[in-house]
């Protein structure tokens, strides 16, 4: 009788421990000798990392900082453009459109993506409706951000190569048309699965929320959201590079054929013409041409860096998104997450790049904070 009571008490105690520690506290599995072994309570099963390791906390902290920095930087750009009247024109409206898309990525897309990353097995626990809303905003805002980069590159290309025909009025109309087409195309790509039944984003059985894996939609969405604007920006930057090289060669041809004797004789006269008050127009034209060339060179460098960062951030994700549904293969979840957040980080780099190469933004930021004080 006492032995029976001890066995009953031991059974109750072990049941209580199992309830407190959860189903993974004890893992019964036969070892090679045939004896059933158990994993000690609190230890993670083999091949699985602890749920809250130091590395996991560090990664989550970095992602939270990335979300906050992306939101604040783009919001600062938007506030500056709205408050400074000099920015109420092209190309700042294209920059504002880019900042709007990047603010929405940071405010609506990245936080829910982080929630999904933190759930066990990357499951979606927020229901079917919110899954559709999240996926729609994800595709629309990221696509708009990418096409806005292409629009900035196109505007810069027309400004450099057609500065006589590309007047202020033409530039304003072209920029508004590009912004409208950007958001219309982004909305079409994002909402096509909902309107036309092009695959399903939410899997209730697996509790998974992801972009439709229908092969035809994968081709349509990746080409419309990335590969087409990628072709545009690469073609545009190649044309900008050719135009800059042609102008440099034309300037060299205009200077080199002059005889050395003429240059020696005319050098004092040119210096006198430039620096005396009797011929101020010559000095103004020379400095004006030099200023415009420096501005175009700075703009070309900015567009090149913007395109380079855009390609490096997004090409791994879109390669995986295109190849996966077509070959019915899948990357490990950890690499999917790395590629996705690398693409999201492009929304952080965009405002840093186009404000770093524009002194007007830096001065406006300083004036904005000094006025607030």
Automatic annotation (TrEMBL):
Q: Which locations, inside or outside the cell, does it occupy?
A: Cell membrane
Gene expressing this chain: LOC108637965
Annotated InterPro entries: 5HT5B_rcpt, 5HT_rcpt, GPCR_Rhodpsn, GPCR_Rhodpsn_7TM
Ranges in coiled-coil conformation? none
Q: Name one GO biological process term.
A: positive regulation of MAPK cascade
Question: Which domain of life does the protein's organism represent?
Answer: Eukaryota
The organism's taxonomic lineage, starting at the top: Eukaryota, Metazoa, Chordata, Craniata, Vertebrata
The G-protein coupled receptors family 1 profile domain extends over 73-354
Q: What does the UniProt keyword field contain?
A: Cell membrane, Disulfide bond, G-protein coupled receptor, Glycoprotein, Membrane, Receptor, Transducer, Transmembrane, Transmembrane helix
Q: Which organism is it from?
A: Capra hircus (Goat)
Q: Gene3D superfamilies from the xrefs?
A: Rhodopsin 7-helix transmembrane proteins
User: What is the protein's name according to its record?
Assistant: G-protein coupled receptors family 1 profile domain-containing protein
Its topology with respect to the membrane?
Multi-pass membrane protein
Using the UniProt record, give the first listed, main subcellular location: membrane
Which GO molecular function entries does the Swiss-Prot or TrEMBL record give?
G protein-coupled serotonin receptor activity
Q: What family does the entry list? A: Belongs to the G-protein coupled receptor 1 family.
Annotated membrane-spanning segments are 53-82, 94-114, 134-154, 175-196, 216-238, 299-319, 339-357
User: Quick one: a GO cellular component term?
Assistant: plasma membrane
Short name of one Pfam family: 7tm_1
Query: What PANTHER family does the database record attribute to this sequence?
Result: 5-HYDROXYTRYPTAMINE RECEPTOR 5A, ADRENERGIC RECEPTOR-RELATED G-PROTEIN COUPLED RECEPTOR
